[in-house]
Amino acid sequence: MNKIYIVGMGPGAYEEMTIRAVKTLEECEVIIGYTVYTELLEQYFPGKEFKTTPMRQEAERCRMAFEEAQKGRKTAVVCSGDAGIYGMAGLMYELSGEYSQVELEVVPGITAGISGAALLGAPLGHDCCFLSLSDLLTPWDVIEKRLLAAAQADLAIAVYNPSSRKRSDYLKKACSLLLRYKSADTVCAVVKNIARDGEEFVVVTLGQLREMRTDMFSTVFIGSRETKLLGGKMITPRGYRI
């Protein structure tokens, strides 16, 4: 049976890819992905055929992969981070019923919540969740309910897609919602350009975060009431006796 590998390529740097992901891409003939991601891979996988589509053409990208696999070519679809967390794995499986002769295999990767957390220390050391502020595919009223639920549950939160040019005030709106249940002194952080040129992070309070500017290359971390700063690192203790 023909096969497509859905590969999580991590945050961007070659060193952040898993060994399994690298070996899979080395064995594939065709690598398909969003242009920004394939450009990061081209220097490490010479001789491969790269096919791309712009943003918001995810379904077209998936169908392109199925068509290549039906020709008998070893094909990979790449996503930043992990393919199953805000990635292409779900959509590939949704479309797979139209291509019964093609098998899928997901190759996990390091998502921004994990790689960003490593830079900060251990902000997700206890119960946590991932939330996206992008309302392209999820209505804002649903995002709002999830933010409030996470705040009420006192979860540490990794926030993806905190803002963009068209959504410049979304992080501010999110912080206002969280402040209904979380203290303005809650430890938070913003990590930008994880594992890429310009990588940086800043630790702030939730009150300060409300006024900060972020972009689509930022991942935001919002602590629980237990989260604290230790030696400049953001730590959410699990509760071990020390």
Write the layout of secondary structure elements.
Blueprint lengths: L1 E7 L10 H9 L2 E5 H7 L7 E5 L4 H13 L4 E5 L9 H7 L6 E6 L4 H9 E2 L5 E5 L7 H13 L3 E5 L9 H9 L8 E6 L7 E6 H4 L8 E5 L5 E3 L2 E3 L7
Parallel strand pairs: 1-4, 1-5, 2-3, 2-4, 6-13, 7-8
Antiparallel strand pairs: 8-11, 9-10, 9-11, 12-13
Per the CATH scheme, the topology name of the largest domain is: Methyltransferase, Cobalt-precorrin-4 Transmethylase, Domain 2
Largest β sheet strand count, sense and barrel closure: 5 strands, parallel
Mean pLDDT figure: 94
The number of domains is: 2
What is the level 1 CATH name of the largest domain?
Alpha Beta
Distance between the ends: 54 Å
Instruction: Describe the strand arrangement of the main beta sheet, using strand numbers.
Output: 3-2-4-1-5
> Strand content of the residues, in percent?
25-35%
Helix content: 25-40%
Overall geometry comes to elongated
> Helix/strand/pairing class, anyone?
alpha/beta
**Secondary structure: number of strands:** 13
User: At the fourth CATH level, what is the homologous superfamily of the largest domain?
Assistant: Tetrapyrrole methylase, C-terminal domain
CATH architectural label of the largest domain: 2-Layer Sandwich
Number of helices: 8
Task: Give short descriptive properties of this protein.
single chain; 242 residues; alpha/beta; Cobalt-precorrin-4 Transmethylase, domain 1; Methyltransferase, Cobalt-precorrin-4 Transmethylase, Domain 2; 2 domains; 5-stranded parallel β-sheet; 5-stranded mixed β-sheet; 8 helices
